[in-house]
Amino acid sequence: MSSVFTKIINGELPGRFVYRDDLVVAFLTIEPLRYGHVLVVPVEETDRWTDLSPTVWRHLNEVAQNIGRAVKEAFGSSRAGYIIAGFDVPHTHIHIFPTDRMGEYDFSKAIAADATDPAEMDGAAEKIRAVLETDENGNPR
């Protein structure tokens, strides 16, 4: 059975994409630590990051680094957080989010999916896309 991320990648479920290529996609999480929290996900459905091929792992991290730079610029944060957790969805993903302090690395303080402001989420995605110069599907403009 496909993961929820595979369904988002395939367009079966909605997603706020900020980046897309043949190997990797990036979209906003529905439960952000802060607005601008992006998941960088390989297209290939692999549960554990340690099982990715070196090529996919390297590219996933290159994209994550670019997304991190964009998040910092878009939100004026001092850093971009980077976390691999992987227990909530069995599909490798890297969390990238704007941050200014360690206390923001706390998933227990994430905004619940039903409490996020859709306009804030759309605005966050657009800010990141503007820096990356991508369209609403995450493709280069």
TrEMBL record:
<dbReference type="GO" id="GO:0003824">
    <property type="term" value="F:catalytic activity"/>
</dbReference>
<feature type="domain" description="HIT">
    <location>
        <begin position="4"/>
        <end position="107"/>
    </location>
</feature>
<dbReference type="InterPro" id="IPR001310">
    <property type="entry name" value="Histidine_triad_HIT"/>
</dbReference>
<dbReference type="GO" id="GO:0009117">
    <property type="term" value="P:nucleotide metabolic process"/>
</dbReference>
<feature type="active site" description="Tele-AMP-histidine intermediate">
    <location>
        <position position="93"/>
    </location>
</feature>
<dbReference type="Pfam" id="PF01230">
    <property type="entry name" value="HIT"/>
</dbReference>
<dbReference type="InterPro" id="IPR011146">
    <property type="entry name" value="HIT-like"/>
</dbReference>
<dbReference type="InterPro" id="IPR019808">
    <property type="entry name" value="Histidine_triad_CS"/>
</dbReference>
<feature type="short sequence motif" description="Histidine triad motif">
    <location>
        <begin position="91"/>
        <end position="95"/>
    </location>
</feature>
<dbReference type="InterPro" id="IPR036265">
    <property type="entry name" value="HIT-like_sf"/>
</dbReference>
<protein>
    <submittedName>
        <fullName>HIT family protein</fullName>
    </submittedName>
</protein>
